[in-house]
Amino acid sequence: MKTTIMCYLLLILFLPGNIGENSNPLDLSSLLGNSGYPGVKIENKNREIGQPYFDLDMRTNVTAEIGEDAIISCVVRQIGSKTVSWVRKRDSAILSVDNVVFSSEDKIALEVNTEYNAWNIIIRNAQEGDSGIYECQVSTDPKMSKLIHLKVTVPQLRIHGEREVFAKSGSDVIFTCTVDSNQQHRWNIQWYFRGKDEKSYQVYPTLNQDNPGVWFLGSVSDRDSGEYLCTANPLEPVSIDLTVLPGERFAESMVKEGTPSSKSEKLHTTILFSIALCTFIIYVI
Fold first, then answer.
1. Which of 69, 128, 250, 260 is disulfide-compatible with 245, CB 3.0–4.6 A?
2. HEC sequence for the chain
3. Model confidence pLDDT, tens digit, residues 93-113
């Protein structure tokens, strides 16, 4: 890039301002183009001076989470008197032409930034059905077009820890539920509870304003047994089953034949016995 700029500067120094009576001074901006738009390179290789072209840094793959505004941008250099249009490929719907929105859908908006040569289609409250290919067209002859792929993702709710919990009566229990998203602040987590003999859920208010995904149950008893449902509209809810046991039953449930702890103890005993037996045999021989 530095070499290219130095070449241009040398060109300016060694060429006269006018190469004839009807010639215009060398226009450096037409060579370098505009670079004010974020992430845009100075690109003019193999381009005809004065002809429109798509900026090479224009994103052709855009991802947005369900419910947020998806923005797909078309950056056209040296647009001149040509117009830019947006078309949705799945139904060939014309969304906009130049700076006018043609779509009858309220969720479709257009943002034009002439300073940065950017035509942005905004899809408000994006849903999975908005995923697909969008085409940016320029009214050249022949027509220029660029395809943009939009993917609307749906995060998942996740329970931290086991989905089936056994707790001793009188102990404290903490449930944690989060959304697999880098925009946690967007999601309103709501908890519901249904007792083991109940058919409907009870709505619980936000228990922790700083972290609504955490539910603390202090000194649990049998009445706390049941299903705990974590939701965040419109995501698929997840649940935890809690069983509160009296002290004796809890101890029995923690010691079962075939558990990893009992198996390791048996293996340890077998190894010690084998070592002792080998030592005895070697001593006798």
1. 250
2. CHHHHHHHHHHHHHCCCCCCCCCCCCCHHHHHCCCCCCCCCCCCCCCCCCCCEECCCCCCEEEEECCCCEEEEEEEECCCCCCEEEEECCCCEEEEECCEECCCCCCEEEEEECCCCEEEEEECCCCHHHCEEEEEEECCCCCEEEEEEEEEECCCEEECCCCEEEEECCCCEEEEEEECCCCHHHCCCEEEEEECCCCCCEEECCCCCCCCCEEEECCCCHHHCEEEEEECCCCCCEEEEEEEECHHHHHHHHCCCCCHHHHHHHHHHHHHHHHHHHHHHHHHC
3. 999 999 999 998 999 999 999
